[in-house]
Amino acid sequence: MTWDDFRERLRATLRELTDRCVLVVAAPGRGGYVQFAVADAELTAEAAGPEFTAGPAAHGADDPTMLAAGWTAPTGAVPNWSAPLVLPALTAEYAALADRCVTALREVYRIAAPEALSYRAWREPEAQPSGVTWPAERIDRLDPGENPLPLPRLGIPAAGQVD
Q1: Peptide bond between residue 152 and the one before it cis (omega within 30 degrees of 0)
Q2: Is the dihedral of CA 119, 90, 3, 99 positive or negative?
Q3: pLDDT for 107-126, tens place per residue?
Q4: Using CA atoms, how far apart are residues 145 and 102, in angstroms rounded to an integer?
């Protein structure tokens, strides 16, 4: 798979993530990752910040490649590079986000090919809102979530799987 193929697969996968979904894409042992979480009509994307990377993946909060790709630099409060996407989003916005992620993985974290990547994904259980009392029957109908959450469209293996 080429990086262009992976970029398109990631774009399509990000469009399918729903509320409470979390996705982490990484190359085991390489020190760089991108991760996504959907909540409150926003898809938040993050790329590993300087305190989570070392060796060839290390980069500072002033990394010109990350800044040029459109990532927001890490801060004390947010230690990772970030790129929020308000939902619903346009296809072009998903494409730009997938492009940012490929730039981080390939250019900054120096991952040679998408075949080195794997993913972890899950959907958090639905929770009863704080301060609200529901009868047991309604609590029983809450979505239990899904862990692991299969995302075959990504075209890379789930962490722990060997193809």
Answers
A1: no
A2: negative
A3: 999 999 999 999 999 999 99
A4: 28
